[in-house]
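Many introductory courses stop at the sequence. We go one step further.
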Amino acid sequence: MSEVKYDTISEMFISVTNRFKEKPAFGFKKDGTWYEMTFSEVRDNVEKISGGLKSIGLKTGDHVGIISHNSYLWAMSDYGISCARGVTTTIYPTLTTKQVKWIVQHSECKYLFCGDLEQTEKVLTFVDELKGLQNVIVLSDEKVEHPKVILYSELLAKGAEYRNSIPGFFEKDAMSIKKSDLLTLIYTSGTTGEPKGVMLTHGNLTSNIFASLKEIQVDEQDIFLSFLPLSHVFERMVGHFLATSVGAKICYAESIDTVADNMGEIHPTLMAAVPRFYEKVYAKIIDNMSSASSVKQKLFWWSINAGRKAENRREHGHSVGILLGAKLKIANKLVFSKLQGKVGGRLRFFVSGGAPLSKEIGQFFKAAGILILEGYGLTETSPVISFNPLEKIKFGTVGFPLTNVEVQIAEDGEILTKGPHVMKGYFKDEIATKEVLDDDGWFHTGDIGIIDEKGYLAITDRKKNIIVTSGGKNVAPQPMENVLVTSKWIEQILVIGDKRKFVSAFIVPSFPNLEAWAKEKELKWENRDELIKLPEVEELYDRVIGESMEGFAQFEKVKKFLLLSHEFTIESDELTPSMKIRRSIVEKHYAEMINNMYDEVNDN
């Protein structure tokens, strides 16, 4: 692959759209049919978006928000803002009206792109209160009556007019941007307190693209399927900037619910996803297999076992051998080819990030010939810090630091990092910035980890999540949660026990599986609240926990658990927009249940 030769995202966009003019850049589905846009068509639209923004008053450094679900329109709006020398502020479309208002106000957005009528209606409830918000641009042509609203088609028309009146403005603006200039404001979906606006420069992101492409082979032949929120730095980096930088084609999933169908339609070669995606796919495979005939079950696990043995031999530098090679051919033909077909049939690898991936799940998929490359990073680090190399994957770790990234472990075990990937700081929050960025330029990640004898980085847990029992034992909840969530019976889990005698957990059952099991057992219940209180159900989960935690020390094991009849949600503030459980909020919401559970044990 030719070396990356640009300092800014705008320069990258100019270079790529000049180089791959007639090649498909985006794919999207409309009314049941997949359509394509070439790089030259994308360039034309982006120039009009830039011109349209400038025609309505955008100045260099102005903040422009995007609140929209993933689409090619999101992507083009982002490039349009950046190339016009604006700063993109990303906002999750799942946020409540109150949360959206806070971010728009705090980030000082002057313009705001809304993906559809639903997002527009959120914004219209407060648009007149925010005097600094000058226009709302609706990325559709649904009629909205408000003096500050501009339809997407109207913005493009204004942009075409602006381009005709000032030829060459686009390249002039785009090429005048410096790598130290602010590219984006991304608000962290932190598990505590108000979100913080992470300031990332053009140089932050291009340095991360450059270093990541040294670790993985990606080129113009690749097809990405994008479904994670582009408002999250992980998808924006991997499935947006990096993909475009090499001229790859990006197809946008219709929704999270259609990802499986869309994989079968476009046959992606690369995808980014969070561990919850792999956990659900894994649970579905295991569940389907548990209801298959005994012959099919034996063949399936025989094949997985052969795949694991082969991978183990390769990891230790040995050849697979004739006998095991013959077994693999059978396994590939009868089992693995079908699993690979479920993800489109030509996937080279998945990229996993955003949260820790279970070692068991990574090894399972690799045994079946489906590679998951796990990386590690934070919004504040653009985001990639480390990455598992394609030829040397080590599950249970997040690979090696990128070549332009420094990593060290502090005395208390915290991971520190330094390099061109580290943010400029938090917007309008010098105190918070100084708390994480020291005088020597080291960013304090808040994660606890180790670097093993071969140089692989492994994450133990979040520093704030470490449980210290009343007996003084330090317990990292993350490894336990990673093991337990792979069970077909568990949808969500949160391990608790700080300053308590023992470790316990909240469990949200996988209700489709639990209800099917309860019907088989001919149990009687009217609703989920009644179902989770049945003694047979408690016995089932007691057994599941006991079997899952065999490898843990006695003081780490979950002694008691509470089953919940409903999931943690974004709406209840118990989940962040990136689907992480807000530990402190959950413990606050269920404080009485927790106290009662521990009191019962004390009484006994």
